[in-house]
Amino acid sequence: MGASAAMAATGFGLSAWAARRGEPPEVWGVLSFFAAMEVIQAASYPVLGQCQNPANQWLTRLAYLHIALQPFAFNALALAMIPAGVRARIRVPVYALCAAATLYTLAQVFPFPGAGQCAQHRAMCGAGFCTRPGLWHLAWEMPLNGWGNSFATSANPVLRLFPHALVGYGLAVFVLPVLYGAWRITAFQYLMGPILASRLTPDVDEQPAIWCLMAVGIAAVILFSPLRRALSQRRWPLWTPSTRT
């Protein structure tokens, strides 16, 4: 609980500081967004493991809603790393694709007829909405449907890239930014997010929560250190000369 509360306070504090110094809304908004997840996590600790408790269930629902909305935050951060001219031209279609990814992710928790239930190898798969203890943090269980259960063992190598079946999320967070040139920050986020989380715990239900816990720190390091310049992109084959300024 203490780590989540500290990250929430840090995120909101940095967000206020960034806004006062004139940073664009994409910067301080991202920090506030990830800090909000830490408020959810901190509030979950008093009811941790109480799966029949309505407070636990609703906090878990809020956590999943936050996850579904994360493509907007990750792309806002990625857009801040490319030239203003490019950003202005592609912002609307990028966010439209993020909205599509969010809707798909939300649909994955809806019990459509014939959709079945999620397979146990998938991250955050559970019988109901519950936040439970992880090995050293908290873990989430959601009643996801069966869309994509077979991806992990599919003969199609592209489908195997999404073993947990969060296709919309994965495409919007890790593929879309690369397409418009923000490959450096995307690679950094991938290494410091899901890859690092998978090394910190073998519990696939805990890994997303750990990544969220670290997200404020990762964003702060990117935005307020020399990494911001290093991860910025000034050239990309798909950009025209007129959009680079």
Summarize this structure as a short list of keywords or feature phrases.
single chain; 245 residues; mainly alpha; two-stranded antiparallel sheet; globular
Your description of this structure?
This protein is mainly α. It has one domain (2-243). Helices cover 58% and strands 3% of the residues. β1 and β2 (138-141) form a beta hairpin. The longest helix has 26 residues, at 54-79. It starts with a helix and ends in a 14-residue tail after the last helix.
In spatial order, strands of the major sheet run 1-2
Uncertain segments of ≥5 residues (pLDDT<50)? Answer: none
Give the number of helices. Answer: 8
Helix content: 55-70%
Strand content: under 5%
The arrangement of helices and strands along the chain is: HHHHEEHHHH
Rg over CA atoms, rounded to whole Å, is: 18 Å
Biggest pleated-sheet summary: 2 strands, antiparallel
Write down the overall mean pLDDT. 94
Q: Report the end-to-end length measured between terminal Cα atoms.
A: 44 Å
Overall, the morphology is globular
Count of strand segments: 2
SS content category: mainly alpha
Total domains: 1
Chain-wise SSE layout:
Elements lengths: L1 H19 L4 H20 L9 H26 L4 H24 L22 E4 L4 E4 L25 H13 L3 H18 L6 H17 L3 H5 L14
Antiparallel strand pairs: 1-2
Helix pairs in contact: 1-2, 1-7, 2-3, 2-7, 3-4, 3-5, 4-5, 5-6, 6-7
